[in-house]
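PROTEIN SPECIFICATION:
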Amino acid sequence: MAVVLDASLLVAIVSGDPRADAVSARLAGWLASDEGLHAPALTPFEVANGLTRLVAAGAMPEGRVEPAWRAVQELPVTYHPLRDGSLVVSLARRLERQSAYDAAYLELAQRRTLSLATLNDRLRRTGPAAGVPVFTP
């Protein structure tokens, strides 16, 4: 089974966030599937931002950023370019005024007919309204 991963989940996985523990068994299954892991092309930027915020908040030592970043890069995630910006804008406006960044995950999941794995509360609420099944640990 393939899945779209969002940045909140990737950051949790590589930073040792206990919420990610519930995902580890599922992650192995996703990695073993033929289609695997997918994310919008903006995801590495969001992960870098998430790691930056953890360091700034004192929740992650700066020395752990490089290993965390390498761990993200080693995951076999297929990154997809934005296909239709107007669709992303429409989704963002229609669904609780999502950010365009968050709507990009929903658009990709819709386009590829995949579930979305996220820790983002707003995406967890709005995914089903967009016709996207949501996996939450």
